[in-house]
Amino acid sequence: MSQVDPKETDVKISETYNADDADLVLVSSDEIHFKVHSYHLKSASIVFRAMLDSPDVNVKKGDQPLPIIYLTDNDIETAEVLKGALDILYHKPFPTEIGEYRDELRKIIPFLRKYECDGSIEGIRSLLHRWITYSDVGAWSAFLVSAGTEDIVTCYRAMYSASELDISAEGGPQGFRESSTVFDLGSLSLERFCQIPGPIAWAILRATNSRPTSTKKWDEIADDFLELFGVEDNQP
What we know:
It comes from Tremella mesenterica (Jelly fungus). This protein is an alpha/beta fold.
């Protein structure tokens, strides 16, 4: 933990998180400064709470520089990810464009898991369950996000509800093949297939082995998928 006054240095400051009454600065791995309110971090993350409650961050306001935390992970602590994570920690409304936000969430969730923002992750899980009921595209998006975080129950619910999805062809030798369902893994383009973690893809293949996809009994396939992981759907 350091003490730096961004006004006295040549730094790039976030346009969104630049509050005059901020009491903390977070610096992303690509060196963007976010002036934030520590209350939101402490209330959402036990890791940030432990960091911010340590004696060396008890800096007085006024003319004193703000305490600063440098984030260094180039994969999950960039300005893009940090901004998205802060939006969640500040309880801002989730974006309504499912396709775009799906890809953003796949980057944000590892950050939230690293800092043990359990309440925020539960909020995202509830969002994914709502996506499943919205549309087939929402169910596929919920599946991709939950697969990336090994949330087996949400994967199961998405598979159970989404038997037929309207997926656009992607062309080329590694492109899309017509199928009755997106969970027919052989129909996916290479790009889409690679978005599914290995254990999840394995379980789908095993679950469909004895049930040809032409039967469209994806509720039964979803049950087999869940059983392979030894997981029960006890979530509300």
